[in-house]
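Q: Is it fine to ask for two folds in a single conversation?
A: Yes, each is treated on its own. Send the first.
Q: Here.
A: Result:
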Amino acid sequence: MQAKQSINDFVIKFANVNGTGSASANGMFAKAIFRMGIPVSPRNIFPSNIQGMPTWYEVRVSQDGYLGRRGGIDIMVCVNPQSMKRDVAEVDPGGYFIYDSTKPLDLRLVRQDIHYIGIPLTEICLREYTDARQRLLFKNVIYVGALSALLNIDFAVLKDLVADQFKGKEKLITPNIYALELGHQYASKNFDCPIGIHLERGHKVAKHIEDFDNILMDGNTAAALGAVYAGATVAAWYPITPLYIGG
């Protein structure tokens, strides 16, 4: 089947294992698109609070500025073998399934109406890192780097995001940028980039989006900031995120 073709209008979903650092990497992916001036709406879908259990993160990219869930998945990034059968089934015909190809894909998971992109994430991490924790964390950063090539994300924006995220912890900046480069180089070398579904800075964006300055934040942060601006004191934390408000 012919691959889907779309610019600045698609849904991508990440299938991860809770407790692996994927939330930070997925958030960086969404912020990079936002900083490119393209409307984006990310959300956790069934975010498991139990380490080792499945968790999903869905991002809707809409040049018209739509924020609600659209339905249907154009690109699935699956790095969780536990949920792979379900994740493959969710991809729309003509869409893309991106997975860790260190081990051969189970033939029972192969569909004829979608397109597979295998990136040996575990193999790359085993080659590049000796520390088990680094292998776990950088796997996520590597797939974001690969997506930057596949989807045409501005790599300079990703580097700036890393610098912002680790401000005051400069020793972490270079290793994270290196992990991004590993993914970007692998995808650029092994696939025709960008793929049919991709991003373009400066492409058509709805006029009502261009006319306003926007910020990207989650609902918990918005609620906490609202309480602060109302004159309250707030203490909040993840995952339960209770708010304690006092005068």
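Q: Second one now.
A: Result:
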Amino acid sequence: MDSNTVTGPTCASTSTASTSSSNSEVAIAYCPPIADTVVTPMIIESKRVDKDSVYIKWGPYSGVDTFNVEYGFENGKWLFNTNVTGFFTTINDLPSNRPIWIRVAARNDCQIGVYGEPKFVGSPRLPNTGFAPQKNNLFIFINQIKNWFL
């Protein structure tokens, strides 16, 4: 084995290694690391879409468009993940009005890069009172909300 020659092609390809004593060929897969030029993605927009869905968008563009999105209900406890092509996604089928923690990392076919800063997303919506908060009706708005929770 000391005289083996191994070359490293791209992730999708395989290479052959041969030995001088047996002349046999062995396929070896090589997975290149995520490029050093890839900027760690940051969540730049997030919002609750409805009671069980949140929308997130991230950037900046740095030569890749495939990402892994991890999320969970506590920061650091990543229960779920999904692969996304592009720079935004909507996560559906969450527990009703429950916010989540999300983080995003660039990925290639073989591995996931460094995750960006986690973000707390999708706090519950306040109920619609029919009154937009304005200078003269703020007191009415607050009392209406108070009555809903009592």
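Q: Anything structural to flag on that second result?
A: Two points. Residues 57 and 88 are 4 Å apart (CA to CA). Confidence is low (pLDDT under 50) at residues 4-10, 13-19.
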